[in-house]
Amino acid sequence: MSSASTGLVRRLRPRDPHEDHRTASPLELLTDLCFVVAISQSAALFHHEVSHGSPGHGLSAFALSFFGIFWAWLNFTWFGSAYDNDDVAYRLITILQILGSLVYAAGIADMFEGHFGLSVVGYVIMRIALVFQWLRAARDDPEHRRTCLHYAFGITLVQLLWVSVVLVPDRMKVAIFLVLVVCELVVPIAAERPVQTPWHPHHIAERYGLFLIIVLGETILSATVAIQQSLGGAHPTVEVGYVVVGGIGIVFSVWWLYFARDTGDLLARVHGQHTREEFFFGFGHYAIFASGAAIGAGLAVRVDHWTHQGHASDLVSAAMVTVPTAILLAMMWVILLRKLPYRRSTALPFTVAVLLVLAATLTPVPELAAGLVCVALLAVEVRAAGLVRTGAA
Fold first, then answer.
1. Which of 55, 90, 166, 212 yields a CA-CA distance of 20 to 30 A from 267?
2. pTM of the full predicted structure?
């Protein structure tokens, strides 16, 4: 992090992508914590919808609302990796982005009801702040000016389209939302084509890892709140212990498996090569993060199931835990291990684990079975790849 004491507003010059010991700044950590408010809202409402018998609606609303959270965070993260100079202007614009994330979080409940007005306002606030940053970078970085202007123009155009979501009939909002998601994905792909921005591979890897920790923390929180409510009810059940043990097994195993290898080295190999692997890494983490948050909602649904407080069927409540766990494990291999030299030795254990987790849906205690499978996969990986400590190769 650069010092803010040398000037209130400094030139927003590109950071060195090979800078030694580049780590997340306190401002980035604060921003992540503000984003977790929106994650908490989305996961809690997903749990509520499924427990009250509306799994399809809950899933679609969760997927849409989580994309807005993820995409705003992703754009802030990659821009900061390339241009964070920590001056007063940068901090104030970031605070504006934080304000937008809180407004977005406040509108998530309305999104689940089919009303996008407040969430669109929050999203546009975040994106306008980012446009200001890209325009600053375009002014101060001649080498990447064309790329920066492409970002600023593309984001502005898509935000104008987002306003249309509020104006179209309710029956068309989801379809328009999906079209705009595609437009959002196109902007960085097109903008990076002239000259790639100087993002830092190890910094990006750390930022993604920290966000996963936040998501897993939210998973634990969701399950804990549900357990507290069940223990305070008239008929707490011992089966809630299955949720505790299974949830710990899933979360701890996912954490260990994700951080066992240095993803910064993976990104460093593709940096500047225009292979588009960086986009696959960046965009693909949506499935990892969303699945992690969904597991928390699923564990809460299972608590409702065991305490007879929910209306989801046994199959649906089981799938709420097993399906996102299977997706998370599969995407972890596809995104993090697929390009590594020893990918073949990891493919079979991960494939078997994914299939067994899905099969656990049909068992009497799916959360416990899924947790045990994750622990078994971790044990196999520790023995086969020597993943005894975080960061081991």
1. 90
2. 0.91
